[in-house]
Give the backbone structure.
Amino acid sequence: MDFVIALLLFTFTLVVYFSYTNNFQKQSYGNLDLLVKDANSISTSLTLSGYPINWNNETVIRIGVTDNQKLNSSKVKLFKKLNYTKTKNMFATYYDYFVYFVNDKDEVLNIDGICGAGYPLITTTYNVKSAYYYSSESDAFLKDFMSQTFAADIFFNDIETFASNLSSYNFIVMEHPLLTTSEYNQYKDHLNNYSSTGGLLMISGELVTAQDRDLVGVGFNKKSGLSASQRTAIVNNTDPYLELSIGQSMTFNQYYYVENKSEAVGFKIIATFNNSDDKAIAKWTYGNGTVYFFSDFDVSNFNGDFIGLVEETTKALVQGTCSPINLSIINPKDLVKAERYISYNSRPVKMIVYLWQ
């Protein structure tokens, strides 16, 4: 009798175990099928133009980032700015996702400042050698951003070390450098050479303590003791990287400006001070390099986040590639991947969609 009871219990246990295992496997396969289906659906949607064709973040009904199978970088930027929960609803998926693009070397592409879009906890960084120079903690608005986003080398009031390493960098930000006249005279040629050989340079604030000093093809000047109304500038030209609109205004904390000395090629005035023709924001090329100038990064009376706008500009300017996408933060139960080939800048690129639960 004991043997019979033990055998029945053992048989019952085996039946329950195998029934549970079989149901679990079916459920797991079912979830994977749904993940694959949603991943393919999202990737298909993104390879279309979206609806309406010229959608924006207010009018979008269906998200798409290509036009005739060619990646539209403007739509990628719009996609990135959409609320994540809203995008999941539009994709009709319950699962989390992340989308990015790679070249033929499997390097993650920087699409006008965008390394990827989707799950907000996945952070992206840019594969560019950069440096940040500043002279005062009170004028260091981009320091943390440059350090965290570009892993930039930070130089505090150390022009000698900074200048000796210029050739190592693709992108440099100098915020309120405040060079002495002797420092300017000693290192002017270093900075000119950096720009002329193709470097990307962004300068804000006071370059030199002295007035009217030339660098990278323009003259740098300042005015002191001006009221807020005199320090107010208005945007009079658009720029593909700097998302300012014509007619926008902002009040700079300080009044610094540049003048074209004829060596600057394609000198573009982006914003001028209201009460003068002084250039508060400008862009030009010097040799093979590109230069942006901002009177200051510290502004008021601006409709928006001025620092955030400048940060987005730097992301778009550096172009090139991003660091590999790190998915370790998501710790998924199930994960699927969908791939599609599209064209970007007349070259084939691969769009990768990850979906997980």
The two ends are 49 Å apart (CA to CA).
